[in-house]
Amino acid sequence: MSRLILLGNPETKRAVYLKKGAEKAGAEVEVLDWREFPHNFEEIYFQEEEIFLKIDPPLWNSCCLEELDRLVLKYEGNLDYLAASVRSKGITFLNHPQGIKELLDKRGCKRRLKKAGIPVTEELETESTSAILQRECEYPLTEQLLDTMERQKIFQVFIKPNHGSGAAGVMAFRYEPRKGQTALYTCAAEQTTTGSLVNTKRLRRFTDRRKVCSIVEGLLKTDCIVERWYAKAENKGFSYDLRAVVQDGKIDFMLARLSAGPITNLQLNNHPLRAEELGLSSAVKNQVEQVCRQAAACWPSLRSVGVDILLERRSLRPRVIEMNGQGDLIYQDIYGENKIYCRQAEMMKRWQQGEKQQTGRGGSTD
Amino acid sequence: MGKSKRYEYDYAQYENGKGSGTMIGDILADPDFNQVTDVTIGSWGSPWEDNCQAILDGIVDNQDKFAHVKQLFVGDMGYEDCEVSWITQGNYGRLWKALPGLKELTIKGSTDLSLGEVEHENLEALTIICGGLPVSVLEEIQKAKLPNLKKLVLYIGVEYYGFDGDEDTLRTFLEKSDFPKLTYLGIEDSEIQDQLTQVVLESKYIGQIHTLDLANGTLTDKGGALLLEKIPSCPNIKVLDIHYHYLSDNMAQQLKGLPIEVDVSEANEPEEYDGEMWMDAMLTE
To answer: Which of B12, B15, B48 has the CB atom closest to A176's CB atom?
Structure first.
């Protein structure tokens, strides 16, 4: 006997549409609720059946960025637990927990991609935040960042929590040294009582240097990455980036996320558009698809990954912004063909039918 | 039919030494250029650092090679390239004589912008897009000799980004300027859009224009009521553009009911912050 399991959240679209896909494929997927983890997992784990497991992200309701850090840590602990559990029992994962964890670390993800020769949005060469803090340097981190930007002649950057997801805490920051002007676009806001950063659903722009520096300082004190802000390609006056879902080496979906501000994220009321409607040349399309496939191939233990890519304005040169081992929920797909989850359900079904040793970059079993 | 073409540098080109000083050379080296009548200049690499004077001077120095250009847009860039208020412009004083065949000029950004003495026989359209229009520039346009100007669009913007005037400044401007052929008047993007609406409706141009453009500002029902009252007595006005506004649904519907073409798209709602209601014009930086 074998069982197809989704460790996730039963009422979410991720679970509902995977189940719809499974129904279509003639498979049955059971959902284990994260809220009952690890007890529900242990119950299954100690039974005889073989397991194919897909891991969805847990639901996080906090908007406080420090709290999100803590939640990520807890989640990473759970992924470690799942990764360790396969040492005593064979579990086939859609995406191996170790790989999912590796992609939660934006810095690590980017370094691996860069090593593989894949173009990424480059990090600024800064002294690491922790090194600076260890020296108990009195000079504010924001001022140090401004110095670095001026020295490297890079006047616009993105600052992101290293472990964040979506637009949570992301800051687009610009500096003009001639007059010392700054501009900051972010969904993060300082809580009036505590001063700590909270995430909101609205993009704001700040220009008052003291205010800007105070907000940026808050993020720089956490584990964050600073990378160059590349002017993104535009379509009808909106800039956009792309989210591709690559599964078993094939691009199953590609969506453009158009935005009237520098932070593109579908949760920010940005406007999605099917990539085919961008009117890109086949040369550019091929290049983007190749970069997506190459990026996905860097994590052979992940059969389904989301790859966020920007195209530089004018040259349309693609660069990977980040990747996500659980980036498969695309509303434009589930309300359409539901291709992404149908394909996952087919992978599960094939496994159940005995095709357990996948060809090529197959599922990972320890 | 002439061709239109955009010339700009991306960051990699800027890093490799491209800038405002190389732009004209690159434009002239373009084999298509002698067919291009509509020239758009986007980012020149570091518009926050280097102004576009070298580009303007380059056009003047090569005026014969630019003689076929009918439309020129200097500074067409979005937030991905540069904050609008950081785009450093230049002095256009020598351009007027150098390009006698120019029909349309659009300028984005008002930092360090000067139009100089404006005198041009053939210019038909002048647009300035910015987050704050300095009075000094407004005065230059006020004194301008543009006998064939048909379309004038000015983004007024906010004080913080350079608009150092008020409704009286605009009243004086509309009184003293002389554009006998003006048919399109755009006074856009203001945080005192209601007051400016009143000033525009009282101006001499209201009897000669066919398009009234008061878009992208904080137009409320107060300004809407003025428009409802005045427009029916101006049969020359065929188009009213007030997209991006703070009108109530009811007022927007009434304006839509005017027997002319009305754009009331992009409705906004004031936001409450610290007990006060705030309204922003579309471009306020």
So the answer is: B48
